[in-house]
Design a protein that fits this description.
Elements: H1 5-33, E1 42-44, H2 46-61, E2 67-72, E3 78-80, H3 82-98, E4 105-113, E5 116-123, H4 145-151, H5 157-167, E6 171-177, E7 181-189
Parallel strand pairs: 2-4
Antiparallel strand pairs: 1-3, 4-5, 5-7, 6-7
Amino acid sequence: VESCHPIFTQMFQQTVRMQNLIEDLLLLSRLERDAGERKAHEKVRVSELLESIFIESKDVSGSMSHKITLQADEHLILKGVAEELRSLFSNIVFNAIKYTPENGSVNIFWYEKNGQSVFKVQDTGIGIAKKHIPRLTERFYRVDKARSRELGGTGLGLSIVKHIVQAHQGEVSVQSILEKGTTFSFTLPKV
C-alpha cells in the first residue's frame, strides 16, 4: 500500500496541472473571442487587489526567502473585469517569484505617470535572453522547457497577460538582463 502513495501523489499533481491548463485555455479562448466587443464593467481598486496578491506571494515564495515589496497608489483605480485583472497581476508577480533564486527580490509597483496607470514588477531573477523576449507572450512558448516544467505552469500565463492588457487598451513591456533580472511592465488608461 505504501508503494502506491507516490503514484497517487503524481496522479493528483498531473490532475491539478491538467485542470489549470483547461482553465487557462478557457480564459484565453474567452479573451480572444470577446476581443472586439469588450467594455469595462466595474471600477476596481487595484491597490486592494495587489495587497491580496502580495499576501499570496509570500506563500508562493515559501522557503525561498524572497524579499517582496509592494508600493501601490491606493487612489489609482481601473475600469475592468476584476477576475481578469487579478489573473493579469498575479501571473506577472508569481512568475517573477518562480524565476528568482533564493533570497532574491521582487518589487511590485502601481502608480500614475503621464496620465497613465503603470504596473511594474522588477525582480533579481535569472533573466531572459533578448532573442526570447519577442515570443514570450505566444501560447505555450517556453524559454527553458525543462525548468518551466519543473516549476509548473501551463505555458499560457503571459499570453493571457497580453490579451488582458490589450483588452484594457494597454501594452506590455519586458526588459531583461541574463543573471541580473527582469522588469515586466504595462500602462493602462487612467480612469
